[in-house]
Give the backbone structure.
Amino acid sequence: MANEQGPQQKWYHTAPGYLTATAALVGSITAAVTGLSQLGVFHKSDTPPAPAVAPASPNSTAQRGTSRRGSPEYRPPARTEPAPRGGSRTEPATTTPPTNTPAATPTAAAPAPAPPPAPVAKTGNIGPGTTIELSSGSRVCSTSSSEGEKFTTTTVSAVSGSNGVSLPAGTQVILSVVMEKAPVYIGAKGVSMDVGGKTIPIAGSATAHTEFTAGPTQKGLGIGACIPQGGRVSLRLTNGVSVTQ
């Protein structure tokens, strides 16, 4: 009969059935391999597990340290601090504690030096015949001066005497006018000298470097001579002069 059908095939005999069965088998194998891999079947470790270490007693630790003294000691790597951001690290300033300085001990003031001894007065003599060079302090003329009129002179250089005494340059000496005959017209003689503020009488004759002049005199118009201011006068002592300094 045309409507009769042949015998029906089972589902796994068909092509879709084969594919479904194959996929299920592959999935089972994959799951089994994954499980075995996780259990370490395919990756066996060669490193044995670390044995459990019991806590060591102090004596055994000391002995172990003594026996292993020669072996190098393991040191962990040094920790490196990260560099600070924005520049180098500033170290905190150190404060130096104040130093106690001992107070200075006052020293005794040095005694004042003793004053020098007072000079001892000494007396000497400027002998007779000594010539003293003088300089006239003013202009003295025979035509305008009179006999015995005094005028002042000063020593030009120092005059030495006995026992270390001397008359320094600039010592004041008083002379008086002596009228002379022509052609000298004028001369002088010693009166006194000032030594250390004391007036000492002297005696002696003096000659001067003069210059001629003409002018009215007591007797009328005449010719004479003058000792100029600053002119040289030489005084020769007749008697010695005692000087105390």
Notes: Residues 15-38 form the longest helix (24 residues).
